[in-house]
Task: inverse folding
């Protein structure tokens, strides 16, 4: 057997073996009383937009695409979701201290205005997460209104 065939066979074996090592899914059936929408009002259309464009990475309940079943893609997605939730978790937003909540809304406004969120890699695959300018304005205006509610509670 040639060296190239041996290398390809080894790679194939490794790819098969890693399929058995899967990260834990970010899915919860539990109620989320700390969810941002349980504490702050938003029009239904904006709620749907934020859930579509943001919740996969910034909540406790990701809707996984078919390719998340393939390693090492699942590991990459899992790491991406953990990072996203560390930055902002809409499912636990109500538990944030006022100063942190205000800062997170400030960052949301900045990231959405500068087209940094949703990530290009996400919106490339999820066409429904691509935000129009009008949707960006609606989202940032909503976040600014939330900041007005939060700021009097900062100590």
Result:
């Amino acid at each position: 057997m040639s060296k190239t065939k041996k290398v390809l066979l080894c790679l194939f074996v490794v790819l098969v073996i890693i399929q058995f090592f899967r990260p834990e899914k970010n899915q919860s059936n539990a109620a989320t009383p700390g969810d941002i929408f349980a504490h702050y009002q938003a029009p239904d259309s904006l709620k749907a937009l934020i859930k579509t464009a943001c919740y996969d990475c910034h909540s406790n309940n990701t809707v996984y695409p078919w390719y998340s079943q393939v390693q090492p893609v699942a590991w990459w997605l899992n790491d991406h979701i953990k990072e996203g939730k560390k930055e902002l978790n809409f499912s636990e937003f109500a538990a944030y201290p006022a100063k942190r909540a205000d800062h997170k809304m400030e960052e949301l406004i900045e990231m959405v205005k500068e087209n940094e969120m949703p990530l290009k890699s996400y919106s490339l695959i999820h066409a429904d997460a691509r935000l129009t300018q009008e949707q960006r304005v609606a989202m940032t205006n909503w976040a600014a209104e939330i900041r007005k509610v939060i700021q009097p509670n900062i100590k």
In short: The mean pLDDT is 87. The two ends are 71 Å apart (CA to CA). Residues 23-153 form one domain.
